[in-house]
UniProtKB/TrEMBL annotation:
Belongs to the thiolase-like superfamily. Chalcone/stilbene synthases family. InterPro entries: Chalcone/stilbene_synt_C (IPR012328), Chalcone/stilbene_synt_N (IPR001099), Polyketide_synthase_type-III (IPR011141), Thiolase-like (IPR016039). Residues 5-219 form the Chalcone/stilbene synthase N-terminal domain. Residues 234-377 form the Chalcone/stilbene synthase C-terminal domain. CDD domains: CHS_like. The lineage of its organism: Bacteria, Bacillati, Actinomycetota, Actinomycetes, Micrococcales. It comes from Agromyces ramosus. This is Naringenin-chalcone synthase. Keywords: Transferase.
Length: 380
């Protein structure tokens, strides 16, 4: 049985953040010491990001709310709302994106209707509410009353890959299954001014976005471009547990994102790919002989930051062209946590460079330090 990912859809909020403008706002915050100002300038300037998106309309140049919550446009000061205020916005705005992305995936999937969906898997690490997004998606899209629902929460940037793995396992267990997977992250709800280098780096990278797809063993329509989900693997690196973390604070969620992460990935990325490639002799040999770029045509790397992509490209001997989908996603959207790798996969699938039978290796990193990988095949 072949299980495929079909109809990848993506969405972002309407408010655009232009990176140099955001940099200037963060650099001008009161209480920022000189070292922090230099870190702000460096982090934003070398991020590889040009634009990002946010649900916070008051961050728009044209917004002038009577009672600002996150940003006082008159003084230029970033405010510090509590976690409750941030999460209430998450519940309202994330629901819109969950439903919108899910509806778009269904509309784009030939031969699949809302009534066909047997399972819903939702993903997020940037907010919580109950009844949760899985419930809201099922209700608003008119899914069957008996649809099975799962939510993968607070896993971090790698969570979309376990979501696809779960969806594939459900399809393998039941050939009639049709699984709607939806990831929504509103990272900008948790950005703040700080002298802490980790917080500054996070503020220079993270953004809001949503992505969805249909996972099923139903055959695709003629001419439909899909991704066969061939294999998944997980690897926890022996170091790095404290270098990437996500904690709940009194003023939102607090990201730990140390500058040691690129070096950790550089050292352990080959080992993380070994369990993914070990069942294919040609792929295993290619990895062992630095021939990964020839054995796998396309690489959907989670663009956690420009330095991470640089390390992956160098360590695996990838070509510049193979990192274009990840770099373009980072440039145009920033790091949208778990949703981001689905944006990269969509970029690859829609590219003229992706031909029938091409292999795709997907990889995402998160707290642990955890590396989640997937091997896919383009069908066009």
């Amino acid at each position: 049985m072949t299980v495929s990912l079909r109809a990848i859809s993506t969405a972002v909020p309407s408010t655009t953040l232009v990176q140099p403008e955001v940099r200037d706002v963060f650099a001008s915050q009161p209480g920022l010491n000189r070292l922090a100002q230099r870190i702000v300038a460096t982090s934003f300037n070398v991020s590889g990001i040009e634009t990002r998106y946010t649900v916070l309309e008051e961050l728009s140049r044209d917004a002038h709310p009577e009672v600002p919550v996150f940003f006082d446009v008159e003084s230029g000061e970033l405010l510090l709302p509590g976690t409750k205020a941030r999460n209430e916005i998450y519940a309202e705005e994330a629901t819109k994106l969950y439903v919108g992305a899910g509806r778009a995936a269904l509309e784009q999937c030939p031969g699949v209707e809302a009534s066909d969906v047997t399972h819903v898997v939702t993903v997020s690490c940037t907010g919580f509410y109950a009844p949760g997004p899985d419930f809201m998606v099922a209700r608003e899209l008119g899914l069957p009353a008996g649809v099975q629902r799962y939510h993968l929460g607070f896993m971090g940037c790698y969570a979309a890959i376990p979501a696809l793995r779960l969806a594939a396992q459900l399809c393998e267990a039941d050939a009639s299954a049709v699984v709607l997977v939806v990831s929504v992250e509103l990272c900008t709800l948790h950005l703040r001014s700080s002298n802490d280098p980790d917080t500054i780096v996070a503020s220079s990278l993270f953004a809001d976005g949503a992505a969805a797809g249909i996972v099923t063993s139903r055959p695709p329509a003629d001419g439909e471009r899909t991704l066969d989900l061939d294999r998944f693997a997980t690897r926890i690196t022996p170091v790095g547990e404290g270098d990437m973390a996500w904690k709940i604070g009194d003023h939102g969620f607090e990201m730990v994102l140390s500058n040691a992460i690129p070096a950790i990935i550089d050292e352990h990325i080959t080992g993380a790919l070994e369990p993914l490639f070990e069942h294919d002799a040609a792929l295993a040999e290619a990895l062992a002989t630095d021939g990964s770029s020839d054995a796998v045509e396309h690489w959907a790397i989670h663009p956690g930051g420009r330095s991470i992509l640089d390390k992956v490209e160098s360590r695996l001997g990838l070509t510049e062209a193979q990192l274009v989908p990840a770099r373009e996603t980072l440039r145009d959207y920033g790091n949208m946590s778990s949703a981001t790798v689905l944006f990269v996969l969509q970029n690859i699938l829609e590219s003229e460079a992706a031909g029938d039978g091409d292999r795709v290796a997907a990889m995402a990193f998160g707290p642990g330090l955890t590396v989640e990988t997937a091997l896919m095949t383009v069908r066009a």
